[in-house]
Amino acid sequence: MTNEAQTVAELAVRATGVPTTVKTESGREFLVLPAGHTQHDVTPPNSLDVHRPKNIKQAVTLQNADALIEYLNRFKSTDSLLLADIAQSRIVGALDYHAPDKAALVEHRAILDLPYSEEWKIWTGISGQLQPQLEFARFIEENAPDIKAPAAADLIEAVRDLQAKRTVNFIKAVRTSSDNENFEYTDNTEARTKGELEIPTRFLLSVPVYFGDPPVEVPAFLRWKLDDGNLKLGIKLHRAEHIRQASFKLIVTDAVEKTGVLAVFGKLS
Predict the structure, then answer these.
(1) Which residues touch 238 (CB under 8 Å, ≥6 apart)?
(2) Partner of 191 at 20 to 30 A CA spacing, among 7, 59, 110, 182?
(3) Model confidence over 32-90: pLDDT tens digits?
(4) Organism's domain of life (predicted)?
């Protein structure tokens, strides 16, 4: 049996000088113009049967955990599987995963790369770094809403004291009974008068780890260094990686509870 192209070509050779419309067995229609044996596909739109794939081959990138849950609930099967890569904050839903007694293509995937919250990026970005006292004071002032303890009034007072003591020489630091750090200094502009500056040594932040998540408590400690009369200060988050991993596990657990899809910690190669 000749194919469609051959059929059209043969009819074109035999055609008269009048344009001819040819309809093939598959339902396609061609307009044949004898001059030069030109042909044009004039099949009416949407008139042919569309051959649909037997399996879904699709990788979808989602932007939050709710979208992952909704997508899983729409396309999941009894063999679907969640693979949670805790190191990369990535969850992959393998919708057409292998069954125990049957191999599958594993070509339909829902991918969620959990984005960090802006607050988490700010505080982890500054963690462990020492800054000049004025820069540190400005940072604390700008990000004070993320600090749960000490009280806002006490923190603002300490920050203002830091900003006011820009030209003094710091001598030493003494830990107080209230577990604050008391910095002693001399002020050369005021007849070498001596003074003290007290700063909290422990902080409790309340920030979300991932975008859209509720805030979690993150302990932090004051870090400081005296360098030839200059005071440098910083914040060190306590066990930040443990807190991040705990938040990731909660997201995975929530996805399992809301979809019924089994989760394992690992990643697809």
Answers:
(1) 218, 219, 220, 221
(2) 182
(3) 666 555 566 767 777 767 777 788 888 999 999 999 999 999 999 999 999 999 999 99
(4) Bacteria
Q: Are residues 85 and 107 in the same domain?
A: yes
**Residue 177: exposure state from Cβ atoms within 10 A (0-12, 13-18, ≥19):** exposed
Residue given tokens 């400005």 in the structure block: 138
Q: How far is CA 165 from the centre of its chain?
A: 40
Report whether the peptide linkage leading into residue 150 is cis, meaning its omega lies within 30 degrees of zero.
Answer: yes
CA 100: distance to chain centroid? 32
Residue 84's domain spans which residues?
A: 58-114+246-265
DSSP state of 214: P
8 A C-beta contact, residue 152 and residue 123: no
pLDDT band at 239 (very low <50, low <70, confident <90, very high): very high
CB atoms within 10 A of CB 244: 20
What residue type is 196 in one-letter code? E
Does 181 map to a domain?
yes
Is residue 48, in this structure, part of any structural domain at all?
no
